[in-house]
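[Meeting: bench + compute handoff]

Bench side (C.D.) handed over the final construct sequence. Compute side (W.E.) agreed to return the predicted structure before the next meeting so the bench team could plan truncations. Sequence as handed over:
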Amino acid sequence: MAYGQVVVGPPGSGKTTYCNGMSQFLRLIGRKVAVVNLDPANDELPYECAVNIEELIRLEDVMAEHSLGPNGDHYFLFDFPGQVELFTLHSNAKNVIHVMTNKWDYRLTAVHLVDAHLCSDPGKYVSALLLSLSAMLHLELPHINVLSKIDLIESYGKLAFNLDFYTDVQDLSYLQNHLDQDPRSAKYRKLTKSLCELIEDYSLVSFTTLNIQDKESVMDIVKLIDKSNGYVFAGIEGNINEFNKIAAGPLDWDYYRNAAVQEKYFKEESSNEENDVSE
């Protein structure tokens, strides 16, 4: 039985950087890792590939043939292309994943990366929520949504709310108030309200945070992934006591983890109490 991660996310979310850092970390803790690059446009890979789709197909050949633009006992990391249609609409990637999970008995977790700076723009954050929800429903895998590059989150301005508002996807009506203050967004108020209600009705989307350069941050992600795809239970078949010990083990509560991340990467907490919706 093999385990692994299906790494997806829009362009610029840090998928290749994630696969590079994650593969290094997993090897460091003793796992045999194979990285599979499924993006033919990814021609400058920082990691060593076990399988590289670029050796089978060249982006230039596809573009020329179809007149397309550039965005037309191992542990596996599958580095998917950044075209969001592949993991939200089209069936091809889903069919490949279906073969791996049902015929090859691979235990996979989808790791969906979203650039954390999108939190600084309410409209873009709502879009990221919709994209995350679509990917979860389409791929039908154990799923972890990640705010990547959390160390750079304030590079595009201060956030309107505390970090846990964005990771826990709390009452989005507060976000609508901020959108209404933007003349560009105010005229789409009814649409935004309906989209926010849709996200809250499903109540599926939440995020964890990641700085791929921080070993502690990577370890937190690995723990979540190992529980979601069953890797943490590998090798204890038949040992019900060990199984229960792991399944009921103590959790690193999100509240404390988010507080530590905010203290580490945010310049200062907002002094505006009305913006602190977490209290």
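W.E. noted at the follow-up: The chain has twelve helices and seven strands. C.D. will use this when planning the next construct.
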